[in-house]
């Protein structure tokens, strides 16, 4: 995916009345938080923002262009209305080029396991993996092909192809996907049908007297 660029303007005023005025003009108020804690108040074109963030994940790095000043950042939070999901406010978190970062990357499972075709059940215990890398190497998602998995076989974090320069923080022994089979029920013989030999002997002896 090519780098998404979102154009923003500096925002000097704050407050709920200012935010409402910004929204009425077709824009969204927001804040860009820097790595050292500083914050920049901004606003963005609502339509451009909605179209720009389609299909991105929490680890997609976008460029926020504030009047010609470019900042690479994550979309960390979007506040929406409960009724129609309209975006009210957006928070960005800036990442610094050349500085290692840690982030949780979503796992996307692909394929139909061989073990499932034989009657097993696929389980995916975790939905993301924490990694450490430079911003330029951060994957948007981790695709896991589970097609080869047979009964009682697993894929672990250590088996994942994370890409060059990406290191897993999540433990390597953590199970990402596994195919399990349900235990077969063992039929038990009813007690009435099982007659011990010692119990049958007295009854036979009585019949002969």
Q: How large is the radius of gyration?
A: 30 Å
Bulk shape: elongated
How far apart are the first and last residues' alpha carbons, in Å? 96 Å
User: Into which percentage range does the β-strand content fall?
Assistant: 35-45%
Q: State the low-pLDDT regions, or none.
A: 203-207
- Rounded mean pLDDT is 87
Topology:
Elements: E1 4-10, H1 16-24, E2 27-33, E3 39-45, H2 46-52, E4 61-66, E5 69-80, E6 87-94, E7 101-110, H3 114-117, E8 121-123, E9 128-133, E10 141-145, E11 154-156, E12 167-168, E13 175-180, H4 197-208
Question: Could you name the key traits of this structure?
Answer:
elongated; alpha+beta; 4 helices; 209 residues; 6-stranded mixed beta barrel; disordered C terminus; 13 strands
Walk me through the structure:
With 209 residues, the chain is an alpha+beta fold. It contains four helices and 13 strands. It has helices at 16-24, 46-52, 114-117, 197-208; strands at 4-10, 27-33, 39-45, 61-66, 69-80, 87-94, 101-110, 121-123, 128-133, 141-145, 154-156, 167-168, 175-180. Strands 1-3-2-6-5-4 form a six-stranded mixed barrel. Strands 10-7-9-12 form a four-stranded mixed β-sheet, with no helix packed on it. It has a three-stranded antiparallel β-sheet with strand order 8-13-11, with no helix packed on it. A hairpin with a 2-residue loop joins strand 4 and strand 5 (69-80). The longest helix has 12 residues, at 197-208.
């Amino acid at each position: 995916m090519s780098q998404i660029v979102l154009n923003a303007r500096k925002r000097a005023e704050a407050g709920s009345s200012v935010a409402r005025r910004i929204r009425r003009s077709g824009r969204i108020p927001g804040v860009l938080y820097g790595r050292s804690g500083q914050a920049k108040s901004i606003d963005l074109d609502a339509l451009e923002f909605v179209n720009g963030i389609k299909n991105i994940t929490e680890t997609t790095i976008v460029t926020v262009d504030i009047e010609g000043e470019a900042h690479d950042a994550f979309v960390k939070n979007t506040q929406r209305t409960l009724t129609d999901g309209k975006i009210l406010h957006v928070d960005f978190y800036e990442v610094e080029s050349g500085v290692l970062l840690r982030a949780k990357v979503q796992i996307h499972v692909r394929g139909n396991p061989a073990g499932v075709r034989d009657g097993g059940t696929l389980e995916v215990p975790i939905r993301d993996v924490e990694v450490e890398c430079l911003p330029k190497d951060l994957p948007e998602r981790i695709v896991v092909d589970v097609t080869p998995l047979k009964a009682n076989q697993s894929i672990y974090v250590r088996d994942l192809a994370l890409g060059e320069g990406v290191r897993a923080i999540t433990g390597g022994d953590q199970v990402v996907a596994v195919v399990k089979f349900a235990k077969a029920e063992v039929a038990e013989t009813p007690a009435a049908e099982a007659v011990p030999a010692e119990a049958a002997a007295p009854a036979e002896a009585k019949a002969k007297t």
